[in-house]
Amino acid sequence: MDRFEAMSVLLAVVEEGSLSAASRRLRTPLATVSRKVADLERHLRTQLLVRSSRRAELTDAGRAYVAVSRRIIEQVEEAERQAAGEYSAPRGELHVTAPTMFGQRHLMPVALAFLAEQPEITLRLRLADQQVSMVDEHIDITLRIGHLEDSSLVATRLGSVRRVICASPGYLARCGVPRVPDDLAQHDGVSFQGFAASPEWRYRGDSTAFASAAPRPRLAVNTTEAAIGAALADLGIIRVLSYQVADELRAGRLQPLLADFAPQPLPVSLVYAAAELLPLKVRSFLDWTVPRLRARMTELDAECP
């Protein structure tokens, strides 16, 4: 027995006043309407209706059951309207995550313009350098830097960023310029703590020849901004991503090192769950941000030394 359907039939009987009137409204045979009400009473082990040739009156148990059934059906219908709305127009709350600095510098300006175009969408933007679970945190879209490991997700590529080893001119003037990765062992550096995956000192081809090639950690920090600040203060060598130090490299406040040994660039992608039908709030965000972020990535790649 489909209890939800039986509830709907019972409500139709109550609202129309008789089984025959409910049969006409539902365009269902009278025998079927009568059977569904009887099945419901048998399931509940109580009488809900007192039937006569003209009317159907509720019993005390029937009145209590109908009151609750009406609330349940109204809540389901409201949930269906809300769910259908996500697929008929771009509206509702959209949850997006991104790395902190990339989100501040590149995603935020694009997202603000998107919100101006979509007044019925509210955006919850979470900026964090730790990767979060899209399922557990109910995330609609995440901007990720690196290769996608979860095959149940879809990645729309925006561009790529490079790993950059760099230091200030002042530090290099004092301590010298490393020519090969092994030279880093004679230099001071800044390391990262508190990241789900700390930046690695990797080189082209991931060769084991330079497996231990890293500077001596003089300082450990838990934000990229702090590492860049320490490098600008001539403390030592840092390993970051190209977009994080684009301004400093362009202005000469930091100088790139060991570029010939740099590993392959990392992809930058917008990632979302695979679905046959995406909510329009998700589709509209992707349609708006993808071309604009791709243009920003192209410009950044051209400007960054």
TrEMBL record:
One of its GO terms (biological process) is DNA-templated transcription. One of its GO terms (molecular function) is sequence-specific DNA binding. InterPro entries: LysR-type_TF_proteobact-type, LysR_HTH_N, LysR_subst-bd, WH-like_DNA-bd_sf, WH_DNA-bd_sf. Keywords: DNA-binding, Transcription, Transcription regulation. Residues 1-59 form the HTH lysR-type domain. SUPFAM superfamilies: Periplasmic binding protein-like II, Winged helix' DNA-binding domain. PROSITE patterns: HTH_LYSR (PS50931). Belongs to the LysR transcriptional regulatory family. This is LysR family transcriptional regulator.
